[in-house]
Amino acid sequence: MAAPETVMALRAATATLGARTVLRGIDLTVDSGEVVALLGANGSGKSTAIRTVIGQVPLSGGELELFGTPFARFRDWRRVGYVPQRSTAAAGVPATVREVVSSGRLSHARLRPLGRSDRAAVTQALELVGMSDRARDSVNALSGGQHQRVLIARALAGCPDLLIMDEPLAGMDLTSQDVLAEALREQVAGGTSVLLVLHELGPFAPLIDRAAVLRDGVVERVADPEALHDIACHPHDHHDVGGSAAIGAGLSLSEVNPGTRR
Ligand SMILES: Nc1ncnc2c1ncn2[C@@H]1O[C@H](COP(=O)(O)OP(=O)(O)OP(=O)(O)O)[C@@H](O)[C@H]1O
């Protein structure tokens, strides 16, 4: 069987915000079809790590590749969907739910009016997140959790090969979390790779292939979700998962965890 394509690779990545070195040498990969969760305490660098992947934060050192192409030469941004950390940034923008989701198709339409396939993708994305009945409403009339669902639909409407989400479950009630988990399951079944920041795995747990735990700007350990659950429940008697001790000793993930797909 052919080796899986690596859709995203950060290698020895460092990044600085203001005077602060926030990422201090991150190795992280997402392979084709994989769902990788980034976990870690507040301020550990999770958002910064994924913002480097979409080019919002420049690397000060190390490498980033997207779909096998070095970041500096990567142009195929319609293959990447991004859902930012929940914000009220769109408040005050006079747009309907459907218009906001349609903006996720703009890079496909390439300055032409949206066509039939674009409209179908928007309709499907709205259905996936359970917001079809609100399509004509102003986004200003939505709750925070509904607004988040619209941003997720906007990313899904672009049919990305790599979907990047920053805390998509934040502020979601349990029913909405289940709706999103189902939407994500369908995307993954269709071949989408996913990198997402989570504080709790919640209903996404069964979908996650690997979880990387950040601490102070470095990947402290990489584990499968069951191992993370063990650590959370029995913090004092867990065995090493994915070579955290070796990572602490400065080895790369591929060296300590050769079974990890890269
Ligand atoms: N614009 C900025 N200028 C300087 N430092 C920043 C800036 N943005 C973030 N930081 C710092 O970078 C560190 C990492 O922030 P980041 O948002 O990546 O953390 P996080 O793991 O996503 O946290 P959270 O779970 O709270 O969202 C924090 O110490 C934060 O204070």
TrEMBL record:
Keywords: ATP-binding, Nucleotide-binding, Transport. Transmembrane segments: none annotated. It comes from the Bacteria. The keyword Isomerase does not apply. GO terms for molecular function: ATP binding. Belongs to the ABC transporter superfamily. This is Metal ABC transporter ATP-binding protein.
